[in-house]
Amino acid sequence: MLTLFERAKDFGDRKALASNDTEYTYNELIASSDAVAGNLLSGSQDIKEARITFLVPPSFEYTAIQWGIWKAGGIAVPLCVLHPLPSIQYVLEDTQAELVIAHEDYVSFLKPLEATLGISVVPMEEILAEKKATLPNVSSDRRAMILYTSGTTSKPKGVVTTHANIEAQITALVDAWEWEKEDYILNILPLHHVHGIINVMSCALWSGACCEFLPKFNDEKVREIIASGRLTLFMAVPTIYYKLIAYWDQSSQEEQQKMSEAASNLRLMVSGSAALPVPVLEKWRSISGQTLLERYGMTEIGMGLSNSYRGERRPGHVGLPLPTVEMRLVDQENNPVGANEPGEFQIKGPSVFKEYWQKPDATENAFTKDGWFITGDIGMLNDGLYKILGRDSVDIIKSGGYKISALEIEDVLRKHEHIADCAVVGLPDEEWGEVIAACLVPSGEGLDTQELGSWLKTQMPGYKIPRKYIVQSELPRNVLGKVTKNEVKKLFQTK
Length: 495
Hints:
By secondary structure, the protein is α/β, with parallel strands linked by helices. Helices cover 34% and strands 26% of the residues.
């Protein structure tokens, strides 16, 4: 039996999950996941890495289904509840799944795929019905999960992790962030990404702690839950902190004080999945007294680096490698770079994924000959801590012979009093290779790009100043709140 499930037995009647106004114990989670496994096995001894897809909102049922798939020997493939049918169909076809487990809200939505793909759409209630079975002995080197990359530069790839990979990802964070069984966390993150599945839900369940689900983000509800005092940890993406700040700004002085006091009592607040703008970190610190802990991770590696739980959390930095993670910064020839020199992050360790699903060439190209995973992210060691400069293909702008970090320019732009948010991209240019362009979200009236250009000359070298601007009411983002830079580039093409 896998360690996660063995540990769950030790926590028995402790509260494991809070979902849809109901609390569930570890024993109830064990029983429901055993029933799921029994229904999936349906008389067989082992489903032998069958890909089981499921479209279920974040909930107790989601967790029981995921655990049940693992217990039956299958590969869990969680689907995104916000994705359109073609995106769902792509995953089903790519994984060659034979069935999709559906929450009642999505059964009719998925039904057309039964005829198109010959796949069975199974209502969630059927798979959760009580069923006894002898469960297989699943080894830790078996494939456990397939999560799909965002597909910003090509078609999404299925990232395959084994049970051992998942355990390594969990234990590194439990160790680094000092999880305990008395912890209580709110999960407001999508459960088709490692942030929600591993960092929040699985770390809590490994530790004997409680994870509460809020299937859809609502700033007022989140504020209420924080103010309740029951949380000890909170993890979110930068856009959620931005929304909470906006909600706090509009609240009465009494409500502001309640939220500030409650947030200050949490032992840890984490931001991830996208770069945290320094002004957002500073504003949240002024509200809550909390310095958000930034970390760095990817679908392929889980979390790789983290700022310190007890030590320095430097704004704009992602700290040091987590336990068991090996990391190096290299140039284009895979030679190590020195301090304060930009290089590409490459990662080794037990948390690194096994393969891209049925893409051996892509898998081979993702690793160096000596086994380092090539992240494609550029960073540097700055006074003892690592800093992300951006993604080589998206956030590193090559203009006039310079390599320029879009994230650095964004941090400066956000300091301007009339800019609420921004995204910087490189646009093709015959003379310069790329020119720097900025998509701006103004804060109220009064944003003048000519005045902005003059102000920027006092803040950074001339070669880093954008040459093109566009003003939008909001930035295009994916379901995790990451700005989709390719969509930003398209905005400039339409102007």
